[in-house]
Amino acid sequence: MRHGSGVDRISFLPENVIETILMGIPLRDAVRTSILSTIWRYRWKNLPQIVFDEKSFPLSKWRTRSDFENKMVKSIDQVLLLHVGQIHKFTLDIDLNSLSDIDRWILFLSRNGIKELTLAIRWNYVFYKLPSCLFSCKEITRLELHNCKIRLPERFTGLSNLTVLKLQYVNITVENFQHLISSSSRLEELVLKELYSCPQLRICSQKLVHFSIDAWCDELYLESAPILATASILLRGESCMEAPIYGAECNLIKVLGRLPSLVLVEVMDGVPVRLPMTTQLKHIAIDINFDSVEDILSALCVFRSSPFLKVLNIKVFLDKYATGGYEQGFWKEQDLNCSFDCLQLMEVTEFTGTESELRFIECVFANAPILERVKIYLKANLKKNQGTAVGVLSELLRFRRSARAEVLVAG
């Protein structure tokens, strides 16, 4: 409203503009907009998106946790009671002990067309057991669960519209996990971090495009994911760590060998020297311990089997206590036979300038005929030394490389 003009501008904003404004501010502020004008009064009741988090209800404003919880429960009850229409997106990301109240809210949401649900329940390291009504929400498309326990009901037939599933610190059995994934026929993105009671993961998903895992896991099998395009794989566990340099299969082979459409992979798991197949990878992000012969050979292994590689991201880390330590003369003894015919961009972070790192980059330069750009980011302790950066750049520029390859060294 312009001062003195008498023109009420905010009352006549388009419906979609008002909704966008209300969804872009904390819920408590959205409720307060009722005082702006009669047109805005209770417009928040029609919002399809409701978020309860620390930003909406900061714990610091209350003298005791008990006061905070009582007010939070009453607020959520009131919002849901007064809400008009369907709630498409609901987020609860806050410390709360009232598990029975959460059950009530999920039951309410399951009857009101919920499509996107995020539950991040942080309470004394106890898993919140999800009520069975959640698994009858056929309209749900996105489900994010933190610190929850999943036990599927006996008559569970799947979440037929689910496209995104993210599980973090979730307790779920092997059987329930496999059933949940295989019965979600439209699943496109799956993110797993720290699963409990689920040492073996078998994934069968015909529509899966993006996959990420960072978990303790004995076995990972992507039995059928024909159009998977990107994967980030960090497996921890005794079986996963048994990745021989020569000979038998390891977990990564079992994964890569079944993914004909995979074009990007982030690898943080050991592999043998040669993979028994050619991948379609075009983008690889990999962590390499340049103090470990095993890590270097594992990386070369993946590169040899990725003839279509265009983008390579390497993160350097050094651990001299790793098995298979690096020795002088290692590179001279290797029959590298590693081609980077399609490589166009290489980026190296946490670079320290050791002989092992330099020889590795020299190898890439010598076998990448169409390489266009190389970016080297120095480790923090080297950034302060201007002479080191100049020295590293001078060394790199001496290496034989593609005529059009630009080399950049940055702090």
TrEMBL record:
Cross-referenced Gene3D superfamilies:
Ribonuclease Inhibitor
Which top-level group of life is the source organism from? Eukaryota
Q: Which residues form the signal peptide?
A: none
In this chain the FBD domain maps to 337-410
Q: What is this protein called?
A: FBD domain-containing protein
Organism of derivation: Dioscorea zingiberensis
